[in-house]
Design brief:
Helices cover 25% and strands 32% of the residues. With 165 residues, it is an alpha+beta fold. The protein has one domain: Nucleoside Triphosphate Pyrophosphohydrolase, CATH 3.90.79.10.
C-alpha cells in the first residue's frame, strides 16, 4: 500500500491526504520535516541522498527529514525521520520557526528542529549513501560547489551562516 501524505493549507492546517506519488506528480502542498544535527563541537552532519530518492536525488543535504504521513503529528514525523535516516533516537529536539518552501518539484510547510548528537550515525541505505561532520564555515563554502537540496539551503542556510559569525 502506498504511503498517504498529509496535505496542508497555507496556514499549515491539515486539509486532506494523498498518495505520495500523486503528491509528487501534482506538486501538492504537504507537511515535511527537517532536523539540523550538530555535535557538541558545533559541527553539522552533512549527507548525500541516494540516486533513488523521489525528489532531489543524489544531492547533498544538511537536514534529516521527510514527509508527514496522513494522521501523523509533525513532531512524531520529526522523531521518526531522524531515526530512519540517521539512526538517531532519544535526543532532545529544539524547535525552530516553521517555514514554507515551493518550487517546481515540491511545495510544503516545514516543521524544523535542531539537536545536538555525539553518538554514532547509522544511515538508512535506501536514503543516505554518504555522510560526514563539517564545520559551519566549511559547509557554507560548499554551498556553491556541491549540489545541495535547494529547500534545505533556503530554510536552514541562514541559520548555518549565522553559526559562522
Amino acid at each position: 500500500m502506498e504511503e498517504l501524505v498529509a496535505l496542508v493549507d497555507e496556514d499549515g492546517a491539515v486539509c486532506g491526504s494523498a498518495p505520495r506519488s500523486v503528491m509528487r506528480r501534482d506538486n501538492l502542498r504537504h507537511g515535511a520535516t527537517g532536523v539540523l544535527v550538530r555535535n557538541s563541537a558545533g559541527e553539522i552532519y552533512v549527507h548525500r541522498r541516494t540516486p533513488t530518492k523521489d525528489v532531489y536525488p543524489h544531492r547533498y543535504d544538511f537536514a534529516a527529514g521527510g514527509v508527514v504521513s496522513a494522521g501523523e503529528d509533525p513532531y512524531d514525523a520529526v522523531v521518526r525521520e531522524l531515526d530512519e535516516e540517521l539512526g538517531i533516537t532519544g535526543v532532545e529536539l529544539t524547535r525552530l520557526p516553521e517555514g514554507d518552501y515551493a518550487d517546481e518539484h515540491t511545495t510544503y510547510r516545514a516543521y524544523l528542529y535542531t539537536c545536538v548528537w555525539d553518538g554514532p550515525v547509522k544511515h538508512q541505505p535506501e536514503e543516505v549513501e554518504w555522510g560526514a561532520w563539517m564545520s559551519p564555515s566549511d559547509l557554507v563554502a560548499k554551498f556553491d560547489e556541491w549540489p545541495f537540496m535547494p529547500d534545505t539551503v533556503a530554510l536552514l542556510g541562514p541559520l548555518v551562516r549565522a553559526y559562522t559569525q
